[in-house]
Amino acid sequence: MSQLDTLIEKMYSIDMMEKVNNRAYPLLQKRMQANPDDLDTLYLIAEQHRMQGRLDEAKNHYKKILELFPMHRHATITLNALCGRQSDQVQQPLPVPFILRKAVLPLELHSQFLEFTATHSHQFQSMKGGNFQLSLNKHPEVQQRFLNSIGLEYQHQIFKIVEQAAESLVGMSCDFREAPINYHFLNYPDQSGFGCHQDAKQGGVLNFTYCFYQEPKSFEGGELVLHDTFYSARDAYNDPKLGNNFTKVALPNNSLIVFPSSCYHQVRPIQSECTSFTQHRFSLVGVIKLKR
Ligand SMILES: O=C(O)CCC(=O)C(=O)O
Ligand SMILES: [Fe+2]
């Protein structure tokens, strides 16, 4: 099977998993009521919560597993990942460690992002996932305008978080003032998404996504899915391998997520009745190239 076939299969497997999970969930709940300490049931429920994006419930279930079975390796690794901590290498795909921060920018700065993208809407280009992109690296004049208007204050707020995250996510401390960063804005109309990919190929080590949109929210979907990734594949030059499971993360308005660039991820399709560019889901993605 070609790599493309594998990726396409992954996209469908999320839909499949959701259907199966929805059917299995009440049955698992019943089984747990009958036997609350059954490891297999607890583990399956924990994984379902993670894949459906109910991350607090997932964490509670992994914690319960660890209370009952303190040596449970996969529960330890997954709980670590959900708390933004990298684990030791093992020969199997691992849940991606990530850090999610909500309400990251002051409201005024958040509005400036909406304004900036609205005034540059004509420069966004249509991409194959149905989304629209504006690469700041390909448009140095836009990048300069961005830096002059909101970039510096934005970096001040965001870099603090990313710097703290770097150590636990990719095991390295970093100074972003030196590091090259590839930036692009994204806009997601109805039915658009972003197919499964990793960003390490272009030398990226750490990814961050600032997600923003206008309230009230006028779309559904658009969650970020972080696929369990085979650890050695996190080296950009190895042949990457995907695991069967994943973590679904709903990115709230004005939130920031940081994760290793080598991990496979995708953005789930958007459903929206609204055709206005300014009402869509937006993100600003930064791929940081750090020297290891
Ligand atoms: O929009 C997002 O949340 C992520 C997009 C992404 O993965 C990318 O641009 O590389
Ligand atoms: Fe990406």
From TrEMBL:
InterPro entries for the chain: Oxoglu/Fe-dep_dioxygenase_dom, Pro_4_hyd_alph, Pro_4_hyd_alph_FE2OG_OXY, TPR-like_helical_dom_sf, TPR_rpt
Keyword Iron assigned: yes
Keyword Cell membrane tagged: no
GO MF entry, a single one: dioxygenase activity
Cofactor(s) named in the record: L-ascorbate
Spans of repeat TPR: 39-72
Entry coiled-coil feature ranges: none
Segments forming domain Fe2OG dioxygenase: 176-290
Keywords of the record: Dioxygenase, Endoplasmic reticulum, Glycoprotein, Iron, Metal-binding, Oxidoreductase, TPR repeat, Vitamin C
Leader sequence segment: none
Name of this chain's protein: Fe2OG dioxygenase domain-containing protein
Naturally occurring in which organism (per UniProt): Oleiphilus messinensis
